[in-house]
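Page 42, continued from yesterday. The earlier attempt failed because a stray header line got pasted into the input along with the sequence. Redoing it now with the clean sequence only.
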Amino acid sequence: MKPDLPYPNRTEAGRLLVAELAHYKSKPDVVVLGLTRGGVPVAAEVASALQAPLDVIVVRKLGVPFQPELAMGAIAGDGTQVLDKDLVRALGITAKDVEAVTARERAELERRERLYRSGRPPLDLKGRTAILIDDGLATGSTMLAAVAFARRRVAKRIVLAVPVASVEAVDKLREKVDECLCLATPDLFVAVGAWYRNFLPVNDAEVIELLQESAKRTAETLPA
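This time it went through. Structure tokens are written below.
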């Protein structure tokens, strides 16, 4: 059943995703990963309902130099980078331009990694089912980087789960993952925020709080 759009907020969108992911509940090999920052509140709802640990994939969009909202690629926290080479070529973007944007975004990415993890390593994905969650996909660039991140960390199965996405993004990503779940693909997509009534920016403090709450919940369920 298609959801009523727009979603009230990210939390409610996460609750709606849970129903489609119920078959992963209480499975010991499942890890839920929210893409920072907007995907984390959605992922937190899913992780809580599935009784699975929550972690983040810190990703940054690489915006076209003269049109920053347009993604030409993305990077993830371990150095994983994806680049839309056709777009870069078509727009005449030079390697020097790409390097400059990447350096700027990497600095912010590294700041967030340090802040969110406080020295803790990312959860081990080797041999596990990684459920990758964002609040929505426009071009899909950041999710492509997240999928590459999970592949490099030898996840056994990669599940993509989002409340809303463009048809183009879903088509691009479907073949890259083992399972692709998207609740809605509006014909006139425009932007992710158009499909939420409340789409306030998620700040660092919210991300840290959600990670801490999940870690506490996970610790409480471990055998004594």
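Notes: The chain has seven helices and eight strands.
Reminder to self: strip header lines before submitting.
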